[in-house]
Design brief:
By secondary structure, the chain is α+β, with helices and mostly antiparallel strands. The protein is built from nine helices and four strands. It has a four-stranded mixed beta sheet with strand order 2-1-3-4, with no helix packed on it. Strand 1 and strand 2 form a beta hairpin. The radius of gyration is 19 Å and the shape is globular.
Length: 231
Amino acid sequence: MPRNSTTVSTKQQRIAQLAEQSPQMSFTSLAYLIDLDWLREAYRRTRKDAAVGVDGQTAADYEQDLEANLQSLLDRAKSGLYKAPPVKRVYIPKPGTPSRTGPIGIPTLEDKVLQRAVTMLLEPIYEHDFHDSLYGFRPGRSAHQALDALWQQAMDQQGGYIVEVDIQQFFDTLDRTHLRTFLQQRINDGVVVRLIGKWLHAGVLDKGQLHFPESGSPQGGVMTPCTQKVI
């Protein structure tokens, strides 16, 4: 295991211990944990072959001067100078209904790295808060495990009804004030809260037109599932 992976794992374990010991505590000091080792690990966990964002930058481009780029990213994130670029909106077919499409937002590579770094701070906290029946986008959990749990529950209850519900345009109409209120019950670190706010207000580039929706959270970024599960 790379040294930075071990360092990050140790820090995450400490966060998890504090979250378990103090289930009502709001964390006011988290961003200091993000250092170069943390960003190196965030970069390692970031997909390198995914679609590029609005700046067209690839992983190969970024890696030409990786250490300097990560240092610059760290400095901007800590100082408040980081500017979240708009996400590039694309439309993909919805599972089971090929005739319908749904929007996803593609962040830039650097934005993905920073989102991953912040997610790595939040996951150890919320893993202790989430209900055990929640499986979506959780580390070490999968859709197959969710199906197994559903089957087991149905067998234990000797049958019953299973209802699938899809909330129309849920992500596009998400109340940001509501999200912020829930988030600050556990996260009150100024740097982290500001970064999440920047991502929510970064804007969307859709078919060449830049839009700034007043509600919602763009799907596609690694931060999106984590913040949406908070609600």
